[in-house]
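DM from R.C. (forwarded with permission)

"hey, sorry to bug you on a friday — could you get me a structure for this? deadline for the figure draft is monday and I only need the backbone to look sensible"
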Amino acid sequence: MDWESKMELYDVKRMNYDAQAKVMKALAHPSRLLIAHALLDHELCVCELRELLKHNLSTVSRHLSVLKNAGLLVEEKRGLYVYYHLCCGGLRNFLISMNNLVGETCS
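My reply, with the result:
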């Protein structure tokens, strides 16, 4: 494949790269990573996440908003409470791979 053909292929995939970067940016904060790990096995309401993170409600809500806007979370309102769960099964493998990668980084 010549260079121009390769460049066209990369341009076609540009939107996919942008979507991947959006997900990585959303996860690029310790609190949001903790939320993702906490939601791997079960859904949690905002009050439970606030207790876990030890942050005020507005901070937790901002973190949840970032994750939701990246397409990683789904919210469901039940009465007075809003529950969150992960909406993409591949996130579990990504987080496990990230843990493995961190353990293997060159120093």
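R.C.: lifesaver. The domain at 3-104 is CATH 1.10.10.10 (Arc Repressor Mutant, subunit A).
me: no worries. The helical segments are 3-12, 14-27, 30-38, 46-53, 57-69, 90-104.
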